């Protein structure tokens, strides 16, 4: 029988290896946002991705992890009805007194540095072609320094959602293995707030309020982004299963298998649905379905059998495809990258799927998941909208009309992504 030292070494190496591939998920999202945007904003999109990752890491390093914490670390606690509830981490800033020695908290800090950047990139897809670089960075700093770590503490840091099992007997408390709620839904709801504040792109809606198609400029980048993102998601879900759900390293294989099955079933469901509705499969919606399947997989990947993962992914693919049209047509929300549908809707479904499918050996799990969903919609969405509204009063989010017409590349960076090719303006498309 393996010794405790050997077991910990195996856990450490498996978890560390998984964490180190998580950045591939961010690379994938950056490629997807860029490919689904206009060609005259491609360099700006990639530059914004780079800057947002940097700002998110620094903000999380400065105060984010201190407020997120790890189960058992210092926290602000309130006593309500005789029960203790943890609301916010109380660790030192700047990683002070945090040994980076391979312990579980140190691995959580490393995973958090990557996870917060991944979550921060999600709103970039909904703000494509019109979100100023400076406003992107300010919004990301607030998101990574406050919004993300606050909810992450409630879920991964031993906070009140995680305590629902101990305090009220609701299953094992809120379960979110790889971040369906903490990363995907929080990022997706932030994307919704950004899309609302920015308003639609010029030419997106007719005078009658009907949406017009503005196709992405590079489908190859989009599909490549999906494949690259899969690698990062495999690491994200395996690391989350080990760190936050005490899954044995060998059982992380189940999380990886379920992650892949969710993605492929979601993509096929989207392709089939668009083929039935439009006569041909739609590449961009299939890509959104793939990402939606990955987002949904992050909730229950360590607690369901592969057949259930296929069902979760297929439902995610259908849900994401239909919600893209619903937000665009009925809510007048212009989301070029499909971030709201893929991440918010996919993530919320992934959270709910835990309560429906997950085998945790306890009762009341579905109710704990519903409390988490209510917290996301009833608290996180108004919070991120309000914070970004305040940012917009100081530093406007949207670029000037001339900048959008000219293109974000030339207006904000002074050079285009494709200098050897002719990049047409909206006037060309309207002829």
Outline the biggest β-sheet: 2 strands, antiparallel
Lateral strand order in the biggest sheet:
1-2
CATH homologous superfamily assignment: Ammonium transporter AmtB like domains
**C-alpha Rg (nearest Å):** 21 Å
So what's the oligomer here? Answer: single chain
Secondary structure class reads mainly alpha
* CA distance, first residue to last residue: 74 Å
Strand tally, please? 2
CATH topology: Ammonium transporter fold
CATH architectural grouping: Orthogonal Bundle
What features would you describe in this structure?
The structure is a single chain. With 431 residues, the chain is mainly α. The protein has a single domain (4-429), classed as Ammonium transporter AmtB like domains (Ammonium transporter fold), CATH 1.10.3430. The protein is 68% helix and 3% strand. It contains 16 helices and 2 strands. It has helices at 4-20, 23-36, 42-68, 104-126, 133-156, 164-168, 180-198, 219-245, 252-278, 283-300, 306-330, 339-357, 365-394, 401-406, 408-413, 426-429, and strands at residues 75-80, 83-89. The protein has a two-stranded antiparallel ribbon with strand order 1-2. A hairpin with a 2-residue loop joins strand 1 (75-80) and strand 2 (83-89). Helix 2 (23-36) runs parallel beside helix 4 (104-126), helix 2 runs antiparallel to helix 8 and helix 10 packs across helix 11 (306-330). The mean pLDDT is 94.
